Amino acid sequence: MKYRIRTTLAAVAAALCSAQAAFAADKMALVVKSLGNGFFDAARQGAQEAAKELGGLEIVYAGPAKATAEGQVEIINALIAQRVKAIAISANDPDALVPVLKKAQQRGIKVLSFDSMVRKDGRQLHLAPSSTPMIGAKLAALVLDAAPAGGEVAVLSATAQATNQNAWIAAMKTTLATPPYAKVRLVSVVYGDDQTDKSYREAQGLLKSHPNLKVIVAPTTVGIAAAARAVQDERRVGQVFVTGLGLPSEMLGHVKGGAVKSFAIWNPVDLGYSVVHAANALVKGSVKGVPGESVPLGRVGKMTLDASAEGAMAEPFTFNASNVEKFAKMY
Ligand code: RAM
């Protein structure tokens, strides 16, 4: 009996394998700003979870070594040749990718941006992690949490062309111009290009050129970790506080070490998961990317597209010594 069950199982497994070979899985590409970024690694994990849940999908994860639009253009051309069904991209430039993404759409590929937006005519919809004004207000609140008496503040961003960081910095400036922030003075904005080394050097430069600096606010997970390390290495813990958008797993040591009091982020696993659900709805034709549409995001819920076919996932969540350890195990 036992033997017969085993044989049957083996036969079923063999049948499944040949069925899989006969009906090759649909390929869906997740194109990230650059490889080696923990934020996108977490998004990839979520994308794979969604692919498994939906079935018959294969995630092609790709990104250039450095966060440039040129690198992403090359990748998209290769993906067009591979006949992927959908391309979900976190863009290194809102405009430079539009021509190649239009070409992809002409070949029947569904295109959406997530995290960092592509201009409206280059994609069908955009999945933002959270609303831009909300992220801007959160960054400003974090600055005041780091330096309640105000003082000099500098921004360490990602690349100068990044749609998401530029929009968040603009929104933060709007909030900083309101009365509760009268004592906060923004002295500099520098770019670490989402490279650890360059971000570290830029943070060191800020510490040198602004001896009275109170806060470095980095709206990038790569930048915030590098800035915290620079503050620690330069023995400025307690004088200069680092805040912004970070991964609990990468910030735990810096919260414990005192360079960071608090920071924020949304769940990057959920972001990757949600974008695959949105891409799948475009491929299936149940979502077209028109304003007002409701886009199903699986276990995350749904989002409604605004007049620019943009939707937001969730509110940013704040971390500090009370909760960072728990979330560090997740992302
Ligand atoms: C970096 C990237 C990404 C951004 C996060 C917060 O990992 O720049 O685009 O969303 O930071």
UniProtKB/TrEMBL annotation:
Protein family: Belongs to the bacterial solute-binding protein 2 family.
Main localization category: periplasm
Asked if the keyword Signal belongs to this entry, the reply reads: yes
Pfam families linked = Peripla_BP_4 (PF13407)
Segments traversing the membrane: none
Name all Periplasmic binding protein domain ranges.
Answer: 29-285
Organism per entry:
Pelomonas dachongensis
Q: Where is the signal peptide?
A: 1-24
**Could you tell me which PANTHER family the record lists for this protein?**
ABC-TYPE SUGAR TRANSPORT SYSTEM PERIPLASMIC COMPONENT-LIKE PROTEIN, D-XYLOSE-BINDING PERIPLASMIC PROTEIN
- The protein's name in its UniProt record: Rhamnose ABC transporter substrate-binding protein
Database matches in SUPFAM superfamilies: Periplasmic binding protein-like I
InterPro entries with a match to the protein in the record: Bact_Solute-Bind_Prot2, Peripla_BP_I, RhaS, SBP_2_dom
Q: Which UniProt keywords apply?
A: Signal
Q: Which domain of life is it from?
A: Bacteria
Q: Where in the cell is it found?
A: Periplasm
Entry annotated with the keyword Repeat: no
